Amino acid sequence: MNARQIIEKFGGQTALAHALGTRQSTVSYWAKTGAVPVKWQTQVVDAAKAQGIVLTTSDFVVPTVSSLPASMKTTKNNELVPIQPSQLATPRTQGRLDLGIDRAIEVDGVGMGVLTDGTAFLTGRGLARLCGVAHRNIQDISTEFQAPEAFPRVARIREIMQSHGGSSLEQPYIAIQQRSGTFNAYPDSVCIAILEYYAFEATPTRPDAIKNYRLLAGKALRDFIYTQVGYDPNKNVPQTWKNFHDRVSLTYNSVPKGYFGIFKEIADMIVTLGQAGLHIDNTFVPDISVGIAWSKHWDSAKLAETFGERQKYQHNYPDYFPQSESNPQEPWCYPEAALGEFRRWFRESYIGEGKFQKYIEGKVKLNQLPVSFAQLAISAYVKD
Q1: Distance between CA 221 and CA 63 in Å, rounded?
Q2: Angle at 158 between CA 157 and CA 163, to 5 degrees
Q3: Fewer Cβ neighbours under 10 Å: the N or C end of the chain?
């Protein structure tokens, strides 16, 4: 029985990974190679027994030449030996949509930056320059991390990371999905471990790595990156959230007492989309769409007769928004007594009847959102 057949018994890769307490990418690797590594087979059998699935160790396929992991090959004497890293195919990774690059800079050829969660990072080429090695060396290390059996230098790098209090990783970088493609960011904790390896463990050691390790050991690398890009972890608002944050700051107390405004009321939707990976900028102003649709419903349903009259209030956009040219705006605010009706309408009509989806698709047609992000937004918020 090959790996795919075993995975199907558990209901898919995610289900098996959950049962084993490991990442889905680990199980995905088994599906690609066609075999479950020997060191995992007992745990898989135990997990199957716990779920009432019939499976024994004899059901696992014995790796043949055609089903060997990509990092292994056989010699003429039928011995298994590792393929050199440069011969391994570069692994394909799924970029994370929940993270982005807050800011980035290049200093003396070393690319660096900070992610939206505050993680300081170096680029692959930047890390290579810091270590005094070719970029290919860093690429090979990244590939070796994916292998089922640890290569000696990766095993040592993992040991160094753990000695510094770091956790074990399946890959040394964070893949960030951008509109231009996938970008690999190497966290500062990984960079320090690789730098220490090239400074003291590699044969031969690298003089540049020794010099830079002495300068950047511990938190110094993170602090150096923060300083170079102008990032204050205690005060900084991630760039992804800056537009939303600045709008909230200007409108928080602007609605008269006893009334509610559309922007503040749908803030949870904007936060949900931002957490799902949608970049919130000045082209994404859903409260205008919601406000227009709700205003039409207010008039057509004659809700003023039930809840009282609405009124105008002043709303200002941040100076860098193109909409700020006509500040102050004067949108409607509505009696708080109508809040329950608004939330029902928003859930059942605006979301449920497809008005939100139409708004997002309109942004795609105007080239203000890529199709992939539109699909993400719709799937993240339209759950039913």
Answers
A1: 43
A2: 95
A3: C
Burial class of residue 230, CB neighbours in 10 A (0-12, 13-18, 19+): exposed
Q: And the tokens for 19?
A: 């049962």
Rounded to whole angstroms, the Cα distance separating 333 from 313 reads 7
Confidence (pTM): 0.44
- DSSP E strands in 99-240: the ranges are 101-107, 110-115, 120-122, 174-178, 181-187
> What span, in angstroms and rounded, lies between the C-alpha atoms of 3 and 36?
6
Tens digit of each residue's pLDDT (9 = 90 or more) over 331-360: 889 999 999 999 898 888 888 887 877 877
What is the chain's percent helix, strand, coil content, to nearest 5? 50, 10, 35
Q: From the CB of residue 318, how many other CB atoms can be counted at a distance below 10 Å?
A: 16
Is 214 within 8 Å of 253 (Cβ atoms)? no
DSSP code string of 240-286:
HHHHHHHHHHHHTTTSPTTEEEHHHHTHHHHHHHHHTT----TT--H
Q: Which of 157, 207, 151, 153 is nearest to 186 (CA)?
A: 157
For position 267, what pLDDT does the model report?
Answer: 72
Q: What is the pLDDT of residues 286-320, one digit of tens each?
A: 677 888 999 999 999 999 999 999 999 887 777 77
Long-range contacts of 111-114 (CB under 8 A, 24+ apart): 112/225, 112/228, 112/229, 113/185, 113/225, 113/229, 114/225, 114/226, 114/229, 114/231
Q: What is the pLDDT of residue 67?
A: 39
Contacts of 19 (CB under 8 A, 6+ apart): 10, 47, 50, 51
DSSP assigned state of 105: E
**Which residue is associated with the tokens 């070796």?**
144
Answer whether 316's CB lies under 8 Å from 280's CB.
no
Which residues of the chain fall short of a pLDDT of 70?
A: 32-33, 61-98, 149-150, 166-168, 218-219, 232-253, 268-286, 363, 367-384
Please enumerate in sequence order all residues whose Cβ is within 8 A of that of 39, keeping only pairs 6 or more positions apart, or say none: none
